[in-house]
Amino acid sequence: MADAAVAQPAAKALSCPNCGGTVTLRAAGYSVTVACEYCASILDVSQPEVRLVTRYNEKASRLAIPLGTRGTLDGTEWEVVGWMARDDSGYPWEEFLLFNPYHGYRWLIEQRGGWSFGEQLTRTPEGSWGGLKVDGESYKPFFADGTARVTDVVGEFYWRVKRGDTVRTDDWVRPGAMLSREADGKEVNWSRSRWVPAATIAAAFGVAAGGKPWPPLPHQPSPALPFVKGGIVIAILAFLALLVGASITGGGRSLWNGSIAIAADGRDQQATVGPIELTRPYQRVRVSADVPALSNGWVDLDYTLVDRKNQASYTASKAAERYTGRDSDGDWSEGDQTAGADFAALPAGTYDLVIDYKGNNWVDPNKSSGNFWDPGAGEQTPDWRRDAVQPQVNISVRSRGGAGGGVFVLMLILIVLPLGAGFLIHARFEGARRGESDFASGGDDG
Amino acid sequence: MLTLPCPNCGAPVTFRSPALPNRVCDHCRSMLVRSDAGVGIAGQGAALPFDVSPIQIGTRGRFDGRAFEVIGRVRWSWDDGSWNEWLCLFEGGAHGWLGEAMGDFMMTFERPLAEVRSAELDRIARGAPALPGRKAEIDGEELAIADARQVSCIAAEGELPFTALPGWTIYSVDLKAASGRAASLQREGDEAWFYDGRYVTLAELSANNLRAIEGWTMPRYG
Q1: How much is the pTM?
Q2: SS3 category, A174
Q3: Nearest CA among A75, A39, A67 for reference residue A55
Q4: So what's the ipTM on this one?
Q5: Chain A stretch 3-32, residues whose beta carbon is closer than 8 A to a beta carbon of chain B
Q6: What's the Rg (C-alpha) of chain A?
Q7: Distance spanning both ends of chain B, measured CA to CA
Q8: Closest CA to A138 of A101, A177, A182
């Protein structure tokens, strides 16, 4: 037994039978074809003796990532061993074949400055042509019935490759990944490639960072999508915060509180209270009335807010009413002793509140109340206005906070506008991305 | 376990199991055969060509919960390349083959064709050509013929269940299912063998005692 501890050499040197250049074989035992990196001749390395397949005497293409370059992606180191330029009817791209003896082969694919990291699948995707599934991820059709032609080749490959080789291709995508089927007369291969930010490839392989491909790559995730998603979350949180804030501030600032007395005889009354100072350009104002003594009666309440400066007036009204009684079903009550009236948008200014009001008592017509000629003869009718303590209306004037216009306008500017812009960018990106698809016209969600 | 001197060069050679009667002498590469009469020489093996396979004799791992050790290998070639079949000896004496091609691995086990009962495979076993793309149903699962070709033994090492001399040529048919299941049928004359299994990764096998390759970090699995 040879020393097991001695590491096996990783590469083997060959001499190109055409130009004599020293060609390094980095995947010995796997590689079948080598395209000489000096003269571009195609060599057969499947047998111990290197054989010249196609002679070229040209300077081999300079690669963006030279053969032998190593880079680490997701913690695994890869070495560039081969390179192919391919084209589908004027739509070119480049593929770098990566190798690690412990992890096999992968692909680094460059198109219009965008990069993808691909691997051959040992399983066949499930599903039909309308949509495929691999590892629980769904893919939708994007390109159909393409023809990929090899236009240039450098380095070593595990199959026989030459310029002009063609395969039939079909592709499916999902955001961030593409599924490709390549078929020649003899076999069908499936591969999956994941989109990788150009900066990641630049850092790993020292290649100059690519530009921003436009139109985007078929499987390139929309750059605006995380922003839009984040924006929607922020908008929802902000809205909830506004609601919570509004409930904590209890409808905003108190502007005036006080009471007005209700006459026992139920005549029309008027009170003028104030001043009420409104400071914001526009605000909602609520006038709330509470009549604690109210029982089987109602109070008509008409409010007029008058701007002291220009006598502009705004009106609102809301009656407070409350009835109780007893019938065959037991005690009942209806209405509420409190009533609120809203002014939608009052301009800033100093206001007086003019309250026209009238306390009313309700008499049950079904109840006997004596004879018309002798009202006092029957049961004494109760009248809440005649209680020992003179009833009064407690008035409270508040500006409505939180949901007030200013905050909403601010929210609109800070959240909704950028979100809308994000949506537009996203829509434009997706439109351009889908525009490339063979299913662009028919698909509504391709 | 039986250790004897190589009848050709005298170096000690070990046979682990009567089920694996063949052994390539590590020293002189003679293909030895063990029988009741002793150890004979079946022919001369060839040196293995240089490759960067991460597997070596002595690599260990687990497949479906069973531990195995790699004890032999046959290197095969066809028109468009070559690949390794590593013989794995499992606990309890069973053996399987860890196929290594294009950087992918698959573990397969021999199964009697009679048990498989596939009309398509029976047809091929009787001498019909295998046509890529045609389907064969095995245990209710559909497998497609991926390729079919003449393959030749280049070299072998370690212990083996058969005599594999350089130049030995057989007809080999690969089948694949969508699930990652992989199978092959091998035919020589009117004899045929069937192997059934699936694609695996070294990580999934918790492979250890891998071959050290200069300049590359050996992964640690398990």
Answers
A1: 0.76
A2: strand
A3: A39
A4: 0.94
A5: 4-12, 26-30, 32
A6: 42
A7: 29
A8: A177
Domains in chain A with CATH codes = 12-221 (no CATH), 254-364+383-400 (2.60.120)
Which residues of chain B have a Cβ shorter than 8 Å from any chain A Cβ? 26, 49-54, 56, 58, 77, 80-82, 84, 102-104, 106, 132, 146-147, 176-180, 182, 199, 202, 210-219
Q: Which CATH code fits B2-44?
A: 2.20.28
Rounded Cα distance, A212 and A432, in Å: 13
Residues of B in contact with A123 (CB under 8 A): 178-180, 199
pLDDT per position as a tens digit, A411-433 = 778 788 888 889 999 999 999 99
Boundaries of every domain in chain B: 2-44, 60-200
* Residue in the block written with tokens 């499947």: A46
Across A276-300, b (16+ Cβ under 10 Å) vs e yields bebeeeebbbbbbbbbebbbbbbbb
Strand runs (DSSP E) across A112-221, as ranges? 114-120, 126-128, 131-134, 137-157, 166-174, 177-183, 188-196
Contacts of B63 (CB under 8 A, 6+ apart): B88, B90, B96, B107, B200, B205
Q: For B64-119, how does the pLDDT look when each residue is reduced to its tens digit (9 = 90+)?
A: 999 999 999 999 999 889 999 999 999 989 999 999 999 999 999 999 999 998 99
> Which two structure tokens, joined as six digits, stand for B145?
């013929």
Are B183 and B143 in contact by the 8 Å Cβ rule? The answer is yes
Tokens of A108: 């680094």
Q: Closest to B211 (Cβ–Cβ): which among A8, A46, A77?
A: A8
Task: Give the dihedral sign, CA A187/A192/A195/A198.
Answer: negative
- Whether B214 sits inside 8 A of A9 (CB atoms) is yes
